[in-house]
Automatic annotation (TrEMBL), chains A, B:
Subunit annotation: Homodimer.
PANTHER family: GLYCINE--TRNA LIGASE, GLYCYL-TRNA SYNTHETASE/DNA POLYMERASE SUBUNIT GAMMA-2
Keyword Protein biosynthesis: yes
Protein name (database record): glycine--tRNA ligase
Family: Belongs to the class-II aminoacyl-tRNA synthetase family.
Catalytic activity: 2 ATP + H(+) = P(1),P(4)-bis(5'-adenosyl) tetraphosphate + diphosphate
Entry superkingdom: Eukaryota
Record domain Aminoacyl-transfer RNA synthetases class-II family profile: where: 161-518
One GO biological process term: mitochondrial glycyl-tRNA aminoacylation
EC number, UniProt record: 6.1.1.14
């Protein structure tokens, strides 16, 4: 199935297959219908045996493709996170979605989803009315254009703007048509407390990144001071989505795999291995194209995308490091089964980015739900390391010896300690620390202020006075420009962050590899690459005749010893039905044990997609299976 | 190092190695010392690159050894769990530890740890006093005996008994010697809410098991109805420990790997593959031995342990299924590096077991903290499936066709629907459901009561009246014994649960494989099996001469393509220091690139434990590395 023949895809049929074969299921499903259930299990999913094996294989290949191939340092950090950490990172204040309450129904609706859903419905109605269907409403043509334009850049609207749209276009809850209250921000983090005293607030992490940032200094030391380097973390993250729908695509607990690539901002433009990938062509949709109202993808080599297009001279991708990762992400997605015709890289619009990002490209996969963000590749600049270092007073930076020392002009603040101690007593140390932490730009401004007013205000940690700042007069504080010889250079690295939503990738790939035999829509097939297929080999004795059992068992044990996941199906259903079941499970190979096997030891090997069969000796068949599983043959 | 030479083990030296090589670290360490930090990060640890790789390899081998070898169905269930589920499972009411508050210090102490610590300190003081050290206190000899006896069965005491001990022996907070308040239960689950309305309470799971139980019916269907079968889940669980200490051994967020093996209670005594392991000898410490005050381990073949000891006829291990798993656990632990002299299987005492368990054997590893429970192997009987099925009204059981139908006497309750409907209106359906759910024993009792009093009380879901039970008089309800032909047999399976604490295993194994070169205590070595070693091969160019770089790079790339984790150390430190660093990281193999390599392509391969070196061609060296990594050679 290619991107243009989407109409042949039936989501109900597809979902029925996934449910029937237990790829995943709603968590706590039997509680949903239990008497007096007060819970909310929406957005929570369990993976069944094939889903779980597929996920493990996708993660395993991620480790090979990124951690081993790029020599990344993997960490495993906790999901429980002290509130202070996420306050500093900005998540407590800014990691929120806007929601509207419908007082009549007592329902909470995510504001952007509400606007999107209602405007799309009106446009669909309009299209049907234009096509002559009487019971639909035609829109004024300027209104229809407005709606199109709003939808094209919906991610660019904040809460107040969404509120204005809701007011202006009288957007109501589709369930009951009730008016909704104006959008209010809802923080998406799950909150709890740790320890018996209940005094210590925590959140469940909404991303794995913060744990990696806080370990920066230890990672640098582990890498013996060598830059650039990358860390990675694979683990569950948690977002208390307002009203999750769309199955695995919007869930409240999900597996992420995140890389934090730390670079010297002075040399971040280049990447050591960029030349290896410069010719790879990527399907790109940049910011300018979107702002001009278009969504068409251009195929461009990453070399041109970074170093300037031959035609226009434009460089939509900022630097080699970002470009290198986009290619590596692309190759990974194709390897695990994504359809190249349904992959694109879309650059974020300005208002769409997370609070910490200065640029972001998403790898999006086309599904029956539209284009889905599966991998975000953000430039977080030095934001996180800077805020944590500032808050904790612990360094999160790199210090390198200069080959040639340099003389620099620098602002320097000095405190008159003889006055400071007696005047501020216990607070004196905090004030010293606050002054020492001032950066060059702030010092320059304060020097100016001090010269003009003979008094300055410096922010501090909370003092005995209850204040979080202190006034320092010229008798206690002086600021002047001094010459300094710097033998070392200190810098806070920039961070490029490729962040993978494993569940979204898994679901989208399943849509991409799903098709059905031409003769029968009910005979679904999942053409998963053998690399990630949950089970590699089905072993099927032709009948349940006792003579076939020992051979079957021996064969299964032999494959297990080779660590090749296999499944024996000795049930009495026809061999065709057993193969059909395994086509739905995505099992690429089938081995049949029959009466010839008893006679001469030969086996039949069947390939899932072509249904081609070959007959050979057990050793030859095992040899072929190993070659296929290890990717030496196709 | 064997169990008897523990004195040569220096924990500070060992911990310094783990910290220096970033196996793991306190999470959010830089926040711990940040100004005004209000959090509590105790019991939270991040794994650094070698710890994380070791963990991934331990988990990978777990998947091979259990999931693939035993054909177990792996699930991935959510950690977020609706409160209703854990109320039903008994965790909300019973999953608690007892704690004492010291009002003077504002500290919370775990009651059993308090008693243990204080009594052990007094006994140590006693021993020193007996040995003639003047500043220690001698105890009365009966008191010393009492203390010994209390400590031997401490796990057998509940909260009130611990309170009595604290009172009787005037046990106080060692920090400040303040009196503590009586023990109160503290539930160990982290609590939060889900969804925007804050109305839906959730807990973070304290074990992965519940998600597996709730999926029982889907698993049975996936296995096409065939029993017995097992499921497994690998994932993080959460316990809000009162006052965690002992590093990785008592943490608040931890990785578990749990198997739930479901068996027909009528045939659970036997296991299909038991004969394969019957002769394996296990170090056992059974309940009777412990209750007689001894802790000596006996080596016993699992065949004897299950089917009766030749000498005594006793069978300390209840059945083949349990015995089979004990052996498989034992083999797994040895494979990943546990020292057989420091492994034992200890049976739980009656009061020590979790509320759901009817028998339990722990695999314990001996560490510098004493014997540590690393794997629990509990018989949960049909407890969990029964309570969830009863609460939800959804079946969690197996129905098999009888080969020969049987006639059975059964109690049957009939309701007079013509009276029921008008009298109870909306509640009628709930009453019908409640009566239909009554089991045979209850029905027999109610039949008797109905005959005597002409009225019975039946528990129900909450009714419109606000009551959770209803009175049914003889005019509306009759109960009699009827003969029934049963063509099928319905049963709720028993569950055997091997439950692995991955962090505890990882830490204990690290202690087991740690030693130092005879000549130098500072030269630590971690003799991790190659199977689980974080990095398999160190590649070390002899010097940073430019001619060695391309060969080094090519070699690293070749190993990466074979998916063999390797690390290049081109630093200018001596080759000896680079090997010493990798001995501490547990890297089993080292390849040196030198000027002979430039000349003739030969490389040197070094083995970590013996420090033996061989020289051969690149192809031969790669061949040897592959054989070793795949376990074909040692």
């Amino acid at each position: 199935m290619d991107a243009t023949s989407k109409s042949s895809f039936s989501r109900p049929q597809f979902e029925s297959l996934l449910k029937r074969r237990f790829f995943f299921t709603e968590s706590f499903e039997i509680y949903r219908t239990a008497p007096n259930f007060q819970g909310d299990n929406r957005g929570l999913y369990d993976y069944g045996p094939p889903g779980c094996a597929l996920q493990a294989n996708i993660v395993g290949e991620w480790r090979s493709h990124f951690v081993i191939e790029e020599n990344i340092m993997e960490l495993d950090c906790t999901a429980i996170t002290p509130a202070d950490v996420l306050k500093t990172s900005g998540h407590v204040d800014k990691f929120a979605d806007y929601m509207c309450r419908d007082p009549a129904k007592g329902e909470f609706l995510r504001a952007d989803h509400l606007v999107k859903g209602v405007l799309e419905t009106r446009l669909e109605g309009h299209a049907k009315a234009v096509a002559g269907q009487a019971k639909f409403t035609k829109l004024d043509s300027t209104v229809a254009q407005e709606f199109e334009s709003i939808l094209a850049q919906l991610d660019n609207y904040g809460g107040p703007e969404l509120g204005e749209l809701i007011e202006m276009y009288d957007i109501r809850n589709p369930n009951g048509n009730g008016k909704v209250l104006p959008p209010v921000p809802f923080n998406l983090m799950f909150q709890s407390t740790i320890g018996p005293s209940a005094a210590a607030p925590i959140y469940l992490r909404p991303e794995t990144a913060q744990g990696q940032f806080l370990n920066f200094q230890k990672l640098l030391e582990f890498r013996r001071g060598a830059m650039p380097f990358a860390s990675a973390c694979i683990g569950k993250s948690y977002r208390n989505e307002i009203s999750p729908r769309s199955g695995l695509l919007r869930v409240r607990e999900f597996l992420m795999a995140e890389i934090e690539h730390f670079v010297d901002p002075d040399t971040s433009k280049s990447h050591e291995r960029f030349s290896e990938v410069a010719d790879v062509q990527l399907p790109l949709l940049d910011r300018d194209t979107q702002l001009s109202g278009r969504t068409d993808v251009r195929l461009l080599s990453i070399g041109e995308a970074v170093h300037g297009e031959i035609k226009t001279g434009k460089s939509p991708v900022d630097n080699e490091t970002l470009g290198y990762f986009l290619v590596r992400i692309y190759l990974y997605l194709l390897k695990i089964g994504a359809d190249p015709a349904r992959v694109r890289f879309r650059q974020h619009l300005d208002n769409e980015m997370a609070h910490y990002a200065s640029d972001c490209w998403d790898a999006e996969l086309l599904t029956s739900y539209g284009w889905i963000e599966c991998v975000g590749c953000a430039d977080r600049s030095a934001y996180d390391l800077t805020v944590h270092a500032k808050h904790t007073g612990s360094p999160l930076n790199v210090e390198v010896t200069r080959t040639v020392p340099v003389e620099v002009d620098a602002w320097q603040a000095d405190l008159e300690k003889k006055v400071l101690g007696p005047r501020f007593k216990k607070d004196a140390k905090k004030i010293e620390a606050a002054v020492a932490a001032l950066d060059q730009v702030t010092l320059a401004n304060l020097a100016d202020e001090l010269a003009r007013k003979a008094i300055i205000t410096v922010p501090t940690e909370p003092l005995a006075t209850g204040e979080s700042s202190v006034e320092l007069s010229a008798d206690i504080c002086s600021i002047q420009k001094v010459k300094r010889i710097e033998h070392t250079r200190k810098y806070t690295p920039n961070v490029i962050e490729p962040s993978f939503g494993i569940g979204r990738i898994l679901y989208s790939v399943l849509e991409h590899v799903y098709w059905h035999r031409p003769d029968d829509v009910a005979r679904g097939v999942l053409s998963l690459p053998i690399l990630v297929a949950p089970t590699k080999v089905l072993i099927a004795p032709l009948s349940n005749n006792a003579t076939l059992q020992p051979i079957t068992k021996k064969l299964a044990a032999r494959l297990r010893r080779l660590r090749i996941a296999n499944d024996v199906d000795s049930s009495s259903t026809s061999i065709g039905k057993r193969y059909a079941r395994n086509d739905e499970l995505g099992t690429p190979l089938g081995v049949t044990v029959d009466f010839d096997t008893v006679q001469n030891g030969s086996l039949t090997l069947r390939e899932r997609d072509s249904m081609a069969q070959v007959r050979a000796s057990e050793d030859e068949i095992i040899q072929a299976i190993c070659s296929l599983v290890e990717g030496r043959e196709t």
